[in-house]
Amino acid sequence: MTNPFHDPDTLAFYDREAVAYANRRTTVSRALFDFLARVAPGGRILELGCGGGQDAAAMLAEGFEVDATDGSPGLAAQAERRIGRPVRVMLFEELEAQDAYDAVWANASLLHVPLGGLAAILARVRRALKPGGTFYAGYKAGDGDGRDGLGRFFNFPTEAALRAAYEAAGPWGELEVRSGPGGGYDREPRLWLHMIATR
Questions:
Q1: Residue 4, burial from CB neighbour count under 10 angstroms (0-12, 13-18, 19+)
Q2: pLDDT score of 3
Q3: Residues 6+ apart with CB under 8 A from 20
Q4: Which residues does residue 106 pair with via DSSP β-bridges, in sequence order?
């Protein structure tokens, strides 16, 4: 792979699969509501990798201001249809905001960033947060960069590698790791690492 921050083949996969992927689920995770409980009512939230827009719709329904983004134009279009407002097409490395958001939600999106480039992306996320802001991201655990059975690229980090990437992007006021079983679009069970950080 030549790009240190994203895999073009993975983005192309999501463009091809946009309709099916966007309609694969109708519910949101418990992790989202745990995350929202940490954000002041009406707070401004950046969503990185909004997919089909299910989480953005839930956050909007709870009264939050949401800046929904995705690197796939196909998925961004699907999310726009679901939430009825514009969704910005943006790669992670294009995030330039500073002290702009009360929280950042990155559910199953930063797991596509190569491990070698993850700390640089996390530093951009940290910069985009207001002091005291909350950041959530979920990752599929493993032993390093690789592809799943559908050809998508994942960073598959160990907990130690993930902590090291966050610490390199820090400092953080809080850094918590939770783990548990989960699935995905490929229907393969995996151990997930849920990272919760505050600036």
A1: middle
A2: 87
A3: none
A4: 137
Which residues touch 29 (CB under 8 Å, ≥6 apart)? 55, 107
Q: State the Cα–Cα distance between residues 60 and 72, nearest whole angstrom.
A: 21
Is the Cβ–Cβ distance between 102 and 44 less than 8 Å? yes
Cβ-count burial of 44 within 10 angstroms (0-12 exposed, 13-18 middle, 19+ buried)? middle
Q: What is the pLDDT of residues 44-75, one digit of tens each?
A: 999 999 999 999 999 999 999 999 999 999 99
Q: Which helix (H) or strand (E) holds 137?
A: strand 129-140
Q: List all residues 6 or more positions away from 33 whose beta carbon is below 8 Å from its beta carbon.
A: none
d(CA 14, CA 22): 9
Pick from 158, 97, 88: nearest CA to 123? 97
Name the one residue in this structure whose structure tokens are 């969704």: 87
Is there a contact between 187 and 130 (Cβ–Cβ < 8 Å)? no
> Could you tell me which of 190, 100, 120, 101 has the C-alpha nearest to residue 154?
190
SS3 121: helix
Question: Average pLDDT, stretch 92-96?
Answer: 98
Q: What is the mean pLDDT of the chain?
A: 96
pLDDT in tens, 117-152: 999 999 999 999 999 999 999 999 999 999 999 999
